[in-house]
Write a structure and sequence with these properties.
about 475 residues, binds 2-acetamido-2-deoxy-beta-D-glucopyranose, D-Maltodextrin-Binding Protein, domain 2, alpha/beta, 3-stranded parallel beta sheet, 4 domains, membrane, 17 helices
Amino acid sequence: MLNSLTLFMILFLNFSSAMKNYTEIINIVDELLTKQNIPSEVTAYLCWSKVLKANLFKRLSASNILTKIIATDDIVDLFPSEYQIYLVDLDCEGSNEILKKAQRKKLFSRPFRWVFCGNIEQPLFNDLYFGVDSRIFFIDNAGSEYHIKMPYKREKNSKKFTVNDLAEWNSLQGFTRFDEFAAARNRTDLFGMNINISCVYTDSDTLNHLEDYRNIHIDPLTKLSWILVHHLMSILNASATVIFRNTWGYRDSNTSLFSGMIGDLQTGEAELGGTASFFTIDRIDVVEFYASSAPTYMKFIFRAPPLSYVTNVFTLPFHTYVWYCSFLLLVLIFFAIYVIVKWEWKDVVFREKLERMHDGSISPLRPTFFSVLLMEIGAITQQGTDSEPKSNAGRIATIFTFIALMFMYTSYSANIVALLQSTTESIRTLEDLLNYRISLGVQDIVYAHHYFEVRIQLSIDSYPNQTPGLKWLNTQDLGKLWR
Ligand SMILES: *[C@@H]1O[C@H](CO)[C@@H](O)[C@H](O)[C@H]1NC(C)=O
Ligand SMILES: *[C@@H]1O[C@H](CO)[C@@H](O)[C@H](O)[C@H]1NC(C)=O
Ligand SMILES: *[C@@H]1O[C@H](CO)[C@@H](O)[C@H](O)[C@H]1NC(C)=O
Ligand SMILES: *[C@@H]1O[C@H](CO)[C@@H](O)[C@H](O)[C@H]1NC(C)=O
Ligand SMILES: *[C@@H]1O[C@H](CO)[C@@H](O)[C@H](O)[C@H]1NC(C)=O
């Protein structure tokens, strides 16, 4: 491994200053591009003779590679960028300008590819930055053999290049060695380089439990990401300086600078966000999102309120028509008993009999409105009555009254007990929720503030005059809700 990583400075002095054999260089470029097996579009900056340019053109066209030869030092980023290959002869005049422009436009980074031949001016070369993700191929003529080398820098400000020696080529056999190359395998050893990582926590106790799997319901994202990032650092052989923030960060509308973790990434204070964050539109401009590392959801915990909260439970036990019928029944009973009692006191024989019995225990019912009403109320409230009709018809009516009202009373009581304990099922949609004006408790975490105050407000705006009460709850309060 270390053998392939030599310092480019040393290698560079070994560049031969012999005259280039252009035919061979054209062959190498062609074979190199063919070997990569990616659709390619070559933009060449060459000061070669017309014959050589035509040869290059012919050769690449034969391999189905689109070629453009440009005489000026104008450099443009073309599309699709992953197909673009810039071919530069460094011995040509003006090549330094091209390199400087490319550096300014950040064209040395992925997914652009560059092929260089010839010698480069040493001081300029040291100032160039080919990042770890760059794919820069130097065709280096070492005697009769050519080497293809891929220099890169681990850090932007460093002057040191590290080199992957990709291939060897000679004019007789073509490639005698062509190594596999993948940045993920060949450039991941950062030799203890420091990487600033910005992490977010919302609960200060989280810092004590980053690795011990405790309280995983508090700041789960922070704890999960922390472990992932640490694995990443050990894979990269890098060391991390961690910056802790208590918010992911939102844009200040005046300065367009973000706060928190995103702010660190924006200013370059940190290079890696150590805590997964939500994908929001305003962040896309500022940071680059990689694969999502943890599924995250925000959920409503909806406890249906008791039925008595939303409706009048006292009318619920009976259907509306049952209520109507019950009242009708009471009226009928009243009239039936009234008629019977009226007859009892009108009939001469029976009246004498009644008066004879009057010294007995239960007094006979008198044919007045209030006496009959009082008897009926006694039956409705299940209290009984102290006077009742004495005729057979009156007794039958009394028995039926008491039995009918007893059943009604029992079923009403049984129903209302069940109803008092049940919860409503009438809240099913967000609209219902808004209409019932139930106050809302929200876990007090920074992103909930964003989503409730900014995002949800937008949907609530379509229902004017409805502002549900928001209450911010900490984790303990939220736990109480569950119970
Ligand atoms: C360049 O190399 C080719 C073989 O690849 C050879 O035939 C030719 O003579 C060489 N030209 C020069 C100028 O050395
Ligand atoms: C990349 O790494 C693989 C496996 O470690 C190795 O075989 C290959 O030679 C390396 N390629 C280069 C260009 O160093
Ligand atoms: C990791 O980096 C250190 C320098 O900090 C270096 O000595 C060591 O060889 C590296 N480990 C590997 C496996 O390359
Ligand atoms: C932005 O500027 C306006 C006036 O220019 C000021 O009222 C407001 O407080 C500023 N907002 C922030 C977040 O600084
Ligand atoms: C990393 O953070 C330190 C201070 O914490 C700072 O001095 C340094 O410039 C940062 N590194 C980068 C690459 O921003």
